[in-house]
Each structure stands twice: as C-alpha cells, then as structure tokens.
Amino acid sequence: MSRPGPIGGQREAETEREFLTADVPGAPHLALAELIAGNRRFVTDALRHPNQNASHRAAVAAEQHPFAVIVGCSDSRLAAEIIFDRGLGDLFVVRTAGHTVGPEVLGSVEYAVTVLRTPLVVVLGHDSCGAVQAARAAAETGTSPSGHLRAVVDAVVPSLRRARDAGVDDLDGIVDIHIAQTVAAMLESSEALATEVAAGRCAVVGMSYRLAAGEVRAVAAKPAELVGTLAPAA
C-alpha cells in the first residue's frame, strides 16, 4: 500500500503491515493523517486511486487490515473510498441513514477494532442531511414516519434535543451536534470501543463532509486533541 508524503511516502511491505495495527504508537494519528491526505487529493482533483488494481485485489483476498472504520451516512454522495481516495482493504465501512447506531453497527465497529485491530473510527456525517431534516420535520409537526423509517427518526431525536438546549436551530449546526452525539453514544454504548480508546490503541473522530466542496472537517474527537489535527482540506 502506498502512503502519501505527510506520513512518510513509500514504505516496505513489512512497515506497511505494521502501520495497520492498533499496537503501533501513534497509529490513530497516522490513520487520521492518511484520511486527511486522501481527502485533500480528492478536493484538489489530484487523485491517486491507490489499491484499486488486480494485483492488490489478489493481495488482500486472504485477509484484511483496514486502517480506519467509517461509520457513515448512507447518502449516495458520501462514498468513503472516493472522498478519501482509498481502495480495497483500506476502509471498513458501515453505513446507515443519518449514521444512526444500533447493535449491529456497534458489533461491526467492535469487530474491526478488537479483531482487525483497526486504530481509527470515524463518524462521517454531511451538510443538508435528509435524516436530520426528517427528524426535525417530525418533531415540528408532531408526526412520525411509518414503517422502519421511524427508527431512523427516533435515533436522531436526542441530537435535536441537545441542539435545542444549546440554542442551535440551523440545519447544519444540528448536523454537527448529531455527529458529536453519535461519537459520544458509541463510546458510551460500547465498552470494547471505550477500552481501546482509553488504552490509546484507537481514536474516534466525528467529521462533517461538505457535499459541494468535497472537504471534511472535524466536529468531535476522543481523545479531544485530534480535532486540532484536522484542518480544512482546501
């Protein structure tokens, strides 16, 4: 796997493999730097499309070592491998509408963090989120959608309450709060994830993606100092 300049450029296969484990000191920071570099390439149209050829497909067929988990919104414009300029075996992606988190999502994250030793978990939301809009509309009208869509809306309601308490009423401000709420909820609900973060083997970062600009920015992180490392892509 090739690496962009900010974290060392080309490396030997053995070093590359070590990078993918959560036991390497600073691995969460390295993984975050990798995502930032890829997003900058995407924003500036300097894509490398790494790990998308037949030889790499064969190389990762037997086992996987993703360096980041992406818990993202299912929005069709939020394809993680594209916006972070990555390829096969790089990202362990779990997507639901409004990046809502239930037992299956948490189980998937725990598998990546504890079994695959993935050192970074990213909650990826975006501006103009339809799930947040639907939840806000339901709250304003006192109605709920039918079918299983109601579960998505109900999962966003705590974020709406938090936004109201903070005096935030614009949609994108609510989205940011919902991303931060998802980060907090994951750590509160998953003892396995919280343990890995406390031990320094993993970090959780909430990012918001701008649909038109294509860039990501930090909204929340555990440990908190990681927020300062995520500068605007452009």
TrEMBL record:
Keywords: Lyase, Metal-binding, Zinc. This is Carbonic anhydrase. It comes from Micromonospora endophytica. Pfam families: Pro_CA. The keyword Kinase does not apply. It catalyses: hydrogencarbonate + H(+) = CO2 + H2O. GO terms for molecular function: carbonate dehydratase activity; zinc ion binding. Its EC number is 4.2.1.1. Zn(2+) binds at C73, D75, H126, C129. Signal peptide: none annotated. Binds 1 zinc ion per subunit. The lineage of its organism: Bacteria, Bacillati, Actinomycetota, Actinomycetes, Micromonosporales. Belongs to the beta-class carbonic anhydrase family. It is an enzyme of class 4 (lyase).
